[in-house]
Amino acid sequence: MDCLVINGGHRLRGTLRVSGAKNAALPIMAAALLADGPSTIEDVPDLHDIQSQIDLLKMLGAEVVRTGSTIRIEVKDTGNSHAPYDVVRKMRASICVLGPLLAKRGIARVSMPGGCAIGDRPVDLHLRGLEALGASIDLENGDIVAKAKRLHGGAIFLGGNFGSTVLGTANVMSAATLAEGTTVIESAACEPEIVDLANYLRAMGAKITGDGTPRITIEGVTSLRGASHRIIPDRIEAGTFMIAAAITNGELQIDNVRPDHLMAFIDKLRAIGVIAEESGTGVIVSSQRNLRAVSLTTQPYPGFPTDLQAQFMALLTTADGNSIITEKIFPDRFMHVAELSRLGARIHREGPTVIVEGPRQLIGAPVMASDLRASAALVLAGLAARDTTTVNRVYHIDRGYEKIELRLKAVGADIQRKDEKDID
Ligand code: EPZ
User: Fold this and answer.
1) Which listed residue, 24, 105, 147, 415, has the most CB atoms within 10 A of its CB?
2) Same domain, 240 and 309
3) What is the pTM of this model?
4) How many domains, the chain?
5) What's the 329 CA to ligand 1 centre distance in angstroms?
6) Residue 360 belongs to what domain range?
């Protein structure tokens, strides 16, 4: 198994380009199952999760050809509509084939996803939404089996105890494009990835309005054509690189960024004293130490994203004072706390809230990545720490960041990928 070995303390300087968004690409690739004809998706990052989605689409009868960062998807055979446990276990986002398969083929069998390192992750809202469109849903041998001759439009409330659901909104919106009549999704997720999916579906001929707001209206059509689409920049990768600049007191020009997708995050960066300025199609981020503590709460978009909570926590260990972080989306998403503490951070957790005491000089140590964003937080902490940090189980980071070590190295980080066996 690979690990990342980081000798911290180097200021990062230079230019980085942000990749297309993984979390936009995954549901968009699934939605290609709705089309009669080929779709071409551009700026798809080269990540393990994307490869898992390609493998799944092939299993479901699609021909998928990747050329650089462009993927062409065309359904050739509709005989198999089963996403089995082996696939869904590896990548929870496989659930986003449920809506497209059901709407296009009248049947979908998708293994019920389990929990994961960031906590319980139910799919009740996805299922309630599809039921409201007329699907019958059963659980057989651990598989969700959804059936409907033709879905019909309906009014659906997708709010849950922790806000709306991003992939649930993607599933219901995709399915409703081919339903008979009009569907209104209330309390829809407003994330930019949902707007990107709606843009792709519209290019295919779908009639969708209101995406980006809590009320999405979809007027069903009888068929959709293939379409070309370019994926939006990954806002979470952009935020991670911005923190890399700040935590190393460096200066990075980060290209292919949509600052309007990161307003809550940039607001907090500025509140603690980081300088972030828009420049062309990107941002320039720099910092001169003397960061200040802050309070933040993760929230559905446009609030502060849960997917940047761990990375921001790493940064706050270097800020002066007590910071308070409350996690409102996944209240148990704190696996990184114990690992950051191994590097010398002082963090106290009380339920969904942590207090981060700073500033602390982090000191390198071996640490264990538990999930994608926790791994990113540990890499960031390693960049700031004195001595050597070894981040084990780095396959988590490969799920969401393309060639992270090469890109960080190019802007001055001392970071190498090694086999865990070769580490003393
Ligand atoms: C998406 O997951 C992202 N994944 C996650 O990113 C992200 O953390 C999350 O949205 C929140 O922004 C992809 O896009 C592939 P949710 P999703 O359904 O859609 C509860 C990363 O690091 N809920 O919006 O699965 C749920 O438990 C990943 O890239 C229900 O109660 O998340 C949570 O508390 C990790 N019932 C809240 O809603 C449901 O049926 C939001 O989850 C569904 C969700």
Assistant:
1) 24
2) yes
3) 0.98
4) 2
5) 8
6) 2-19+233-422
Residue nearest to atom 26 of ligand 1 (CA): 121
| 228-261 tens-digit pLDDT | 999 999 999 999 999 999 999 999 999 999 999 9
Which is more confidently placed, 359 or 369? 359
Percent of the chain with pLDDT over 70: 99
**pLDDT (tens digit per residue) in 94-106:** 999 999 999 999 9
Q: What is the mean pLDDT of the chain?
A: 96
167 C-alpha to ligand 1 centroid (Å): 7
363 and 268, same structural domain?
A: yes
Q: Which residues approach ligand 1 with their CB closer than 6 A? A: 23, 26, 93, 121-126, 160, 162-163, 165-168, 189, 306-307, 329-330, 372-373, 400
Torsion, Cα 20 40 27 200, to 10 degrees, reads: 90
CA of 357 to the centre of ligand 1 (A): 29
Distance 250 CA to ligand 1 centre (A): 32
Nearest CA to ligand 1 atom 8: 307
* From 3, 96, 116, 190, active-site residue: 116
d(CA 225, CA 76): 14
Per the annotation, the verdict on 3 as an active-site residue is no
